[in-house]
Amino acid sequence: MIEPAPKRSGLAIWLPLILFGGFFALVIWGLVRPADREVASAFIGKPLPQFNLEAATEDRPGLATNDFKVGKPKLLNVFASWCVPCAIESPQLAALARQGVEIDGVAIRDRREDLARFLATNGNPFARIGKDDLSQVQLAIGSSGVPETFVIDGKGVIRYQHIGEIREEDMPLILAKLKEAGQ
Amino acid sequence: MIAELGLAVLWMAAALAVLQLFAGFSALRPSGKALAGVVRPLAVMQGALVAVSFFCLIDLFLETDLSVKLVAENSHSMKPFIFKLAGTWGNHEGSMLLWVTIMAVSGGVVALVEKRLREDTLLATLAGQAFVSLGFYAFLLLSSNPFERLPEPAPEGAGLNPLLQDIGLAFHPPTLYVGYVGLSVAFSFAIGALITRDVGPAFARAMRPWVLGAWIFLTVGITAGSYWAYYTLGWGGWWFWDPVENASLMPWLAATALLHSASVLASRNALRAWTVMLGVIAFSMSMVGTFLVRSGILTSVHAFAVDPERGSFILALLAIYIGGALALFGIRASTVTEGERFSVFSRESSLVFNNVMLCGILGIVLLGTLYPLLTEAFGAKVSVGPPYFNPVSAIFAIPMMMVMTVGPLLRWRKDKPGRITATVAVPALLAALVLLAVAIMAPGIRVLPMLGIAVGIGLAVASWFPLRGRNLRRTPLSVYGMVFGHFGIAVALLGAAAESAFSTERLAAMNVGDTQAVGPISLKLENIEPVAGPNWTALEATVSASYKGGTPVTLHPQARTFTSPPGERTESALHTRWNGQLYAVLGNEGEDGRWQMRFWWKPFVPLLWLGGLLVAFGGLLALIGRVVHDIKRLRAEDKIAYRKSQQEQLK
């Protein structure tokens, strides 16, 4: 059925190919991306913004800026029960907690029952957990995803930002940054 | 010996594919007409050879031939028979061989049975199928040889991941694969039709049974996969928006859209370019999904066989096939005319709307799956989860399901709104009443489940309306197929919404003899004792559960420890009632000697999978209807041709 070719808009026809081109470029980059993925955050050296989050679980208090101004460095972990890498980093967080590091959590866009289930499954290394339903605190401290972990010094100043899950090999770095923040 | 035979026939099949490709394309030119006769036999032989190769690999796994690297790495002599069999495809190389097998066998079947398509389009289609197969042959033979021998036979196999040692998973991947790869036929049909400029109703009718077949397998595969995740992973969830789940959902969405637009093309000769493009997109989504899973480019709980080198290989295949097909589409689509026109208020329009919505969901799932990679390219790492996928896909899904109640009632080409207003008012009113009732009686539940229940009820009723006023015995099977398919979607939606709205959970530390309650069910931990299976040992709890004080039933959740390879897995125990499911998980022993137990009462959750199976059943009815219809027509045509020849002889 060879038909006379009518004119039709050219771009729409090529759109799938263009989109595929974008996809292709993205995954090529994904395959060759460098192994080092450390990002220098603009928030390092700045004090934590003012916030006061309600408690996300029954057995842990909520989280406020003043909880960090106690003279001892702490970790601030941004996580969520629906995030797979957050479950992956839980053994590392548990190990840090066992070494006496205080870890405070900010649960992003979560539900209490999901969170309870997540903590029951993966362990609860947190001293305090604040509930951040609209990602307000998350955005205010320069975090764009979950999980992320911040080293906060005893005066409430952000000293280090770790993006992505904490893996076994990241532990020495995190501990070194904590020590640095304690000096 | 078997391994060498398997490898040899695989190489031979690849050689035949080369021949099929060249013979097919040469036969399209006037000078190559002589070659037209060999294309079909080549396709059939190629399919048969690959099947032999696949059976060789199955045999190696059943024999546990530890001199073969793949067997030694993935199997174990002590494994039960069924898992030895499943071990064949429970790894990268074996699953790629399965992929090629399905592709070549379906190409062979097309060559054997396809009679409606114009001969040149069929030749181009078979050449296209050979072209696509070749890439995967190259991948298999050059970088993932399943028949590779070890220099020294291994003393014992490394075993199969305990999570995968489950009867559901033994058949889940092959089911999905038949679906993924079955779509390659639609892809080749689309390429063939673009090359010969033969996009029309005959093309759609020829392609439709293949899409339906692949789609049925995908539906069953996704349903089974969701149930598998639900009962083995022990977290009580049934869909996690994990990249691998998304990889199976995306081809299904594209195939669903393709199925509907092919119907429009077959009956009304409209939506030509759109149907061809969906034919290309559906299999492209299968390939993209495979790539995302195999390359390790995204973190996934399923990631097996993660290997960047293989990733690059599949990526090159994607560039050639998807890029090539879309470029061909760009070049040729301008010569495909729009076809018949239709009014805004017509069945075509409702199908177009649903097509756009399906593609919308497809788009947001693809975007959500790639988003972590996309933001990483700009220096930020994020994880995208249900808080994005659930509401955003609902934005498309809810309107789509509303239109689904109306669409099948509309007439082709042009209809008047007044004709169906009274009919549609019934489900609409019902949905509104349900919404009101839920809002009053259970005010705590969230908006999406609430809407889901209302729309689900409305659709469940409205899906039967297309049978109204018809003679039920003379209604074509394909109409029943549509009715069951749409009803199944409503049932699944109700199951999902009820689960999300009304589930209750109980986490408890229990001593033997303790009692607990979850929802309407009271529970008692009777005892905990060790049990042994063929290649595992387990602690098994005996829990008696009684619904509202009725006769108790016994559940046996287990915590299993596997020996080869070492690993642990919870085996949850389920008790299904007509109105819901009790889900019990045995956790660890606490420091105080009490056992951590977890229970869920999930009202109506089995509807979710029942709905999925109903959808597949609808697809099966439609497929049988179409195939029987085609056979009848072919017979009638044969008869007419026979009579004609007889009459001519008489003359």
TrEMBL record, chain A:
Against SUPFAM superfamilies, the record matches this protein to: Thioredoxin-like
Q: Which Gene3D superfamilies does the record associate with it? A: Glutaredoxin
* Keywords, sorted A to Z: Cytochrome c-type biogenesis, Disulfide bond, Membrane, Redox-active center, Transmembrane, Transmembrane helix
Mainly resides where?
A: other
Protease listed as a keyword:
no
Q: Where are the transmembrane segments?
A: 12-32
> Where in the cell is the protein located?
Cell envelope
- One matching Pfam family: Redoxin
Which NCBIfam families does the annotation name? dsbE
Q: Which family does it belong to?
A: Belongs to the thioredoxin family. DsbE subfamily.
User: Which PANTHER family does UniProt cross-reference here?
Assistant: THIOL:DISULFIDE INTERCHANGE PROTEIN DSBE (PTHR42852)
Output this protein's name: DsbE family thiol:disulfide interchange protein
UniProtKB/TrEMBL annotation, chain B:
Keywords carried by this UniProt record: Cell inner membrane, Cell membrane, Cytochrome c-type biogenesis, Lyase, Membrane, Transmembrane, Transmembrane helix
Molecular function (GO) terms for this protein are: lyase activity
Protein family membership: Belongs to the CcmF/CycK/Ccl1/NrfE/CcsA family.
Entry's transmembrane regions: 6-28, 40-62, 96-113, 122-142, 177-197, 209-229, 249-266, 273-293, 313-331, 352-371, 391-410, 422-442, 448-467, 479-498, 604-625
Under the heading InterPro entries, the entry gives: CcmF_C, Cyt_c_assembly, Cyt_c_biogenesis, Cyt_c_biogenesis_CcmF
Q: What residue stretches are annotated with the Cytochrome c assembly protein domain? A: 89-295
PANTHER family recorded: CYTOCHROME C ASSEMBLY PROTEIN-RELATED, CYTOCHROME C-TYPE BIOGENESIS PROTEIN CCMF
User: Which species does this protein come from?
Assistant: Novosphingobium jiangmenense
Where does this one sit in the cell? Cell inner membrane
Q: What does this protein do?
A: Required for the biogenesis of c-type cytochromes. Possible subunit of a heme lyase.
Q: What topology does it adopt in the membrane? A: Multi-pass membrane protein
- Specify the Cytochrome c-type biogenesis protein CcmF C-terminal domain's residue ranges: 315-626
Instruction: Write the protein's name.
Output: Heme lyase CcmF/NrfE family subunit
Q: A Pfam family name for this chain? A: CcmF_C
